[in-house]
Automatic annotation (TrEMBL), chains A, B:
InterPro entries: Aldolase_TIM, ThiamineP_synth_sf, ThiamineP_synth_TenI, TMP_synthase. Belongs to the thiamine-phosphate synthase family. The gene is thiE. Residues 9-191 form the Thiamine phosphate synthase/TenI domain. It is an enzyme of class 2 (transferase). This is Thiamine-phosphate synthase. It comes from the Bacteria. PANTHER family: THIAMINE-PHOSPHATE PYROPHOSPHORYLASE (PTHR20857), THIAMINE-PHOSPHATE SYNTHASE (PTHR20857:SF15). 2-[(2R,5Z)-2-carboxy-4-methylthiazol-5(2H)-ylidene]ethyl phosphate binds at residues 136-138, 168, 188-189. It comes from Desulfocurvibacter africanus subsp. africanus str. Walvis Bay. One of its GO terms (biological process) is thiamine biosynthetic process.
Length: 214, 214
């Protein structure tokens, strides 16, 4: 069994979207605002830099009790002592990830289609990143239609793991995503590019709470 | 202690340099010609494809007793059951690699300068990839002068681990590289782009033998 985790406001990092600001500073602010989980996603860094960044984030997040997941790179997660890994459909297969990281690691999987989610129900995954919920400019390689709020609502009774909605999420739609059955929302630009990452995280946390109550 | 290995003719793969031919086929031919070690280097593949390629190579090489190393990616090595990892100066630190892979993995390090080799003498590395020996077009990111044959000769008495010369290596200079104190030669295009990878490997193996005798 993986350790427990809280998907409410799940920050996926993107250094280019930080607009020149320091990533650690952005994440630190976001956590003070209420981010409950962080995924370090680095597509340009070399491995040495990626590990150093992951270590610095882990050192900052551990005292806050906020888990750090690494996008794609199981080796970086091992080197930095991260809490888990988030993989996409083209990344390492979750069976391999689980075998390497062991039962206590948190393992998330991106699922773009109903077929992918249903297949993952038979795999050792802890949560699904379901997206895109809405059209988004952060990732441009989606080959599938957005799920929409109704898509999430129809998906919920068919799956056994928590899901987090990602893609086009902002403070204006977060409540509806959670109300539709998602455990939380995953955001990139809504926090990384926000004038105040702390205020943005706080507003998202409130919206998620509203969504749960409705 | 890492397992024993033979650096004589060390093939570093490069799919673009295979000129449209199948990588597994090239490597298979090269091994029949005398390649003693293979490093899978993939800079473009996603992780899933990288792992699949590594597994296919491992299945092919294991019966031949030829070790498979993975360039940079410790996670891919773990997933595919490769024999070790080769890292560069910007990849994961060898202390981290060794900790993750354990004492039996073969661990190679690229060293571009005397300072880097001497620093590595205190680290848990099994061999050095010393390069470039000559100017080369395969890697264009070298910020340092080629070692030259004399550079290798002066380096040899200062180090305790075997080294393999890389960069601009071909059948015409392999004997001199080994004669200067290298355990073997690492080649990319000299095999990947050769009309007959098997003949190219065989000629390199002969040159290495000549270099040892001289």
């Amino acid at each position: 069994m993986s350790r427990s985790f809280d998907l409410s406001v799940y920050l996926v990092t993107d250094r280019p979207l930080c607009q020149g600001r320091d990533l650690l500073d952005i994440v630190g602010q976001a956590v003070r605002g209420g981010v409950s989980m962080v995924q370090l996603r680095e597509k340009m860094a070399d491995t040495r830099e990626f590990v150093e960044l992951a270590r610095a984030l882990k050192a900052m997040l551990a005292p806050q009790g906020v888990p750090l997941l690494i996008n794609d790179r199981v080796d970086v997660a091992l080197a930095a002592g991260a809490d888990g890994v988030h993989v996409g459909q083209g990344d390492m297969h979750v069976l391999d990830v689980r075998r390497i990281l062991g039962p206590r690691a948190i393992l998330g999987l991106s699922t773009d289609t109903l077929e992918q989610v249903l297949e993952a129900e038979g795999l050792p995954v802890d949560y699904y990143g379901v997206g895109p919920v809405f059209p988004t400019s952060t990732k441009t390689d989606f080959s599938h239609q957005p799920w929409g709020i109704e898509g999430l609502r129809r998906l919920r009774p068919r799956i056994s793991r928590p899901m987090v909605g990602i893609g086009g999420v902002d403070v204006g739609n977060a409540a509806r995503i959670v109300s539709a059955g998602a455990e939380g929302v995953a955001v990139v630009s809504a926090i990384c590019s926000a004038p105040s990452p702390k205020d943005a995280a706080r507003a998202l946390a409130k919206a998620v709470a509203v969504g749960r109550g409705s």
